[in-house]
Amino acid sequence: MSQQTVFITRLVPQKGLDLILGEPTIQAEIWPGELPPPREILLQKVQGIDGLYCLLTEKIDDELLDAAGSQLKVVSQMAVGVDNIDMAACTRRHIPVGNTPGVLTEATADLTLALLLGTARQLVRAAEAVKAGRWRTWEPMGYTGPDVYGSTVGIIGLGRIGLAVARRLQGFNVRLLYYNRRPNPAAEEVGATWVDLDTLLAESDFVSLHFPSTPDTKHFINAERLRKMKPTAALINTARGDVVDQIALIEALREGIIAYAGLDVTTPEPLPADNPLLSLPNATVLPHIGSASITAREKMATMAAENLLAGLRGERLPNCVNPSVYG
Ligand code: GLV
Fold first, then answer.
1. pLDDT for 26-64, tens place per residue?
2. Which atom belonging to ligand 1 lies closest to the Cα atom of 81?
3. Ligand 1 centroid to 34 CA: how many Å?
4. DSSP letters for 110-149
């Protein structure tokens, strides 16, 4: 293989970097900052590269692909979601795009459970009070929230991650409902019942979102659908921020249309400190940490490196989001 250049947009777990840096024919530049490269720098850094290893913080669009040049052979993203990438633009240029499905399923399901339980039981608010010296006594009615045990949980998007969440919830004796466009035969294994969306929204104590962000799913949870939920219900989102109309959600939380939200994802990310969501006592917001287990992040980094290397060799990516580039 002749000499090739790649740009890696952040320091990622070493196991992934080693795979790339161990290739004598590859000259890799790694953006060393804790924050993503600013757009204008990214546009410079990609000029003339053969491979791009990116994160969900980078917008990959026509402008960037033009800046990179026609020699670009592969875009490999260390994430399963690829809504930051203009897939049509990559496909038009016959550039395969890699992602990292599967390896973050369990970590994301763990975090979903943590967020669901934490939202119900006011974990963050309670811990903040202790830290701030506001633990004055044992309060008979302080920090009370709904039971997860024995509740009804509605999963929208019973795919890989939705199923992993459902499996965990079996231990909580919940009634599990799910909504997918088509029933998933694997639902039987977790005792989940396929219902229409209105039924799921009306009957669930917790509604958890597990579907990708696409133009079709933008603001899937909107004011009208929030109104169909129980006033005591919680919305849990570990998918993508823009599948929820956040303005409508803030209003719903303020007006008691629903009771709680647990969000690992928001619009925008990062969420500015003065966003109204952050002053609502009934919203728990996390900084997009669904896949942040050490093992999951190592596997994601490795998988993205394998996709990158395959693309540079002109081989089919082990995990390709736009396989139509192979004809
Ligand atoms: C994280 O959100 C991912 O898509 O991998």
1. 999 999 999 999 999 999 999 999 999 999 999 999 999
2. 4
3. 18
4. HHHHHHHHHHHTTHHHHHHHHHTT---S--TTTT----ST
